[in-house]
Design a protein that fits this description.
By secondary structure, the chain is mainly α. Helices cover 70% and strands 0% of the residues. The protein has twelve helices and no strands. Helix 7 crosses helix 9.
């Protein structure tokens, strides 16, 4: 594909496809050029560097998250939908967890998401810095919840690039984990799953439990704050 027929949008979409398959370490301009049928040098007419492309690709996938209206569904349902949407997006694009730890992810789609999160927590009754902290707390939980699955998928991508046997490596790793767990009574009591029993996705009940717990805490914080700020009635004196 000649460089003058390429667009930045095409390059970013192709980069997302490569990242989904290979991870951040597997993305390079030569691999991307092969994906697009273009010379690697043609990429640089539209993006400055691989790092620039990772940021563009990361911002692109934030647009996948639907933004609920807190006035229509209530702040708590909107907060849960935003958190679940981000969690699902990170599950589809495992490389995002790595990218967020090595790059400053920014762009219009990420800003759009962040702005709606702040609107939701302001609608709940948090103001100023408290809205920032509520939004950041939930997002940190979402990223942490996605990290385990993302780490496994990134590990598998590295094994594929190295030509290793994924299932054999996973089996050996689980065996080592099981051997270590036998030293500790509470871990020993929880049997380690086999490769065949290992779920492809994290337990959604676990994610939902954690999210409900955090939102319960935020709701309680609002209630306590409201009680502190409410003037004492004459009958209560």
């Amino acid at each position: 594909m000649p460089r003058d027929t390429l667009t930045r949008e095409q390059i970013v979409r192709a980069a997302v496809a490569v990242l989904d398959a290979e991870g951040v370490d597997g993305l390079n301009m030569r691999r991307l050029g092969a994906q697009l049928g273009a010379a690697a040098t043609a990429m640089y007419w539209h993006v400055k560097s691989k790092d620039d492309l990772v940021v563009l690709a990361a911002d692109h996938v934030w647009d996948e998250i639907r933004l609920p209206d807190p006035d229509e569904v209530g702040w708590r349902a909107a907060a849960a939908a935003l958190a679940s949407g981000a969690h699902d997006m990170l599950g589809r694009h495992f490389w995002m967890v790595t990218a967020m730890s090595t790059h400053l992810i920014h762009g219009p789609n990420k800003a759009r998401y962040d702005d709606r999160c702040l609107a939701v927590y302001e609608a709940a009754g948090f103001g100023g810095r408290d809205a920032d902290q509520a939004s950041a707390t939930v997002l940190m939980y979402v990223i942490g919840a996605a990290q385990g699955e993302a780490a496994e998928l990134a590990w598998r991508a590295r094994l594929r690039r190295a030509g290793a046997d994924e299932e054999q490596q996973l089996r050996e790793t689980l065996e080592r984990i099981g051997e270590i767990a036998q030293r500790y009574p509470r871990l020993r009591a929880r049997s380690m799953p086999s490769v065949e029993e290992t779920p492809a996705l994290p337990d959604e009940a676990t994610f939902e439990f954690g999210l409900r717990t955090i939102l319960d805490g935020l709701e309680a914080r609002l209630a306590n704050g409201n009680r502190r700020s409410r003037p004492e009635s004459p009958a209560g004196r």
